[in-house]
Amino acid sequence: MPELPEVETYRRYFEETALGQTVAHLEVEDQRQLTTDFDTLQQALKGAQFTGAHRIGKHFLINLSTSKTLVLHFGMTGDLAYYRDAEDTPRFARIVFHFQNGFRLAFIDSRKFGRVGLAESIEAYRQEKRLGPDALDISLLQLQASLGKRKAPVKSLLLDQKILAGIGNWIADEVLFQAQIFPAKLANQLSSAEFKRLHAAILYVLKTAIEEEANYGNFPKTFLIHARGWDDSALKPAERQVCPQHRTPLNIIKVGGRTTYFCLVCQPQ
Ligand SMILES: [Zn+2]
């Protein structure tokens, strides 16, 4: 599933390709993937220029010269491709933006859980979805202020998009492993030193993932993800998974209903 690192990679790709282009028309295979009706969307996009590419968590927002904002949500399998010739149209191109310069941008989505539509503005969308600050932008002080008084497991709060946007299940496990914090520890019991480690780990994990363009196989050997896996539906039995530091078996618990991998040696209770 495209998480913050993938969406940031798409955003950068978009900036290098479709940004600045003017839309000639729009092609939509299945209108159920639109959150704005087709005619309204076509009208808003025709002749509009893509003037900015923003991201809040895994939500991708494109400024239009016509003052509206286009929102792409990548669902389970969303991706982007920029190309010119019809014969290069990727398989599963569900929505295609045709530009006046003859190039095209495809919203690729094999499983069709992705959504495309309009918002009034980035701020209006943020409020409507009640999204907290992007996980890459949150400061240590903000993090401590939002979590410090909460009597809830730190992992559950990290996953709450209203507190900070962009942390999914594998990222939360990786962040807590790197910060050496027990995932079910109550946030109001975290020390200042633990908050510092937590904030540094959020930045470290996300920046590393973005640098590697979300190619998980290339992540450092010290990352939990090689043992844990990133696809929660394909989790392997615990006994085969060992801590990258200690080579001792990982523990699995549920925190807030979510499967959680951790090392009891690195992350004592
Ligand atoms: Zn360990």
Describe this entry's structure for a reader.
With 269 residues, this protein is α+β, with helices and mostly antiparallel strands. The protein folds into two domains: 4-128, N-terminal domain of MutM-like DNA repair proteins, CATH 3.20.190.10; 140-262, Orthogonal Bundle (Helicase, Ruva Protein, domain 3). 29% of the residues lie in helices and 22% in strands. It contains eight helices and ten strands. The chain has helices spanning 4-16, 38-45, 122-128, 140-147, 154-159, 169-179, 192-211, 225-228; strands at residues 23-28, 50-56, 59-64, 69-73, 78-83, 93-99, 104-109, 115-119, 251-255, 258-262. The strands form three sheets. A four-stranded antiparallel sheet has the order 1-6-7-5. Strand 3 and strand 4 (69-73) form a beta hairpin. Helix 1 (4-16) packs across helix 7 (192-211). The longest helix has 20 residues, at 192-211. The protein is elongated, with a radius of gyration of 20 Å. It binds zinc ion (ZN). Zinc ion binds at residues 243, 245-246, 263, 265-266.
List the helices and strands and how they pair.
Elements: H1 4-16, E1 23-28, H2 38-45, E2 50-56, E3 59-64, E4 69-73, E5 78-83, E6 93-99, E7 104-109, E8 115-119, H3 122-128, H4 140-147, H5 154-159, H6 169-179, H7 192-211, H8 225-228, E9 251-255, E10 258-262
Antiparallel strand pairs: 1-6, 2-3, 3-4, 4-8, 5-7, 6-7, 9-10
Q: Which hetero ligands occur in this complex?
A: zinc ion
Gap between N and C termini: 30 Å
Strand content: 15-25%
Number of strands: 10
CATH superfamily of the largest domain: MutM-like, N-terminal
Helix tally? 8
Task: Based on Cα principal axes, name the global outline.
Answer: elongated
Total domains: 2
Q: What is the residue-mean pLDDT, rounded to a whole number?
A: 95
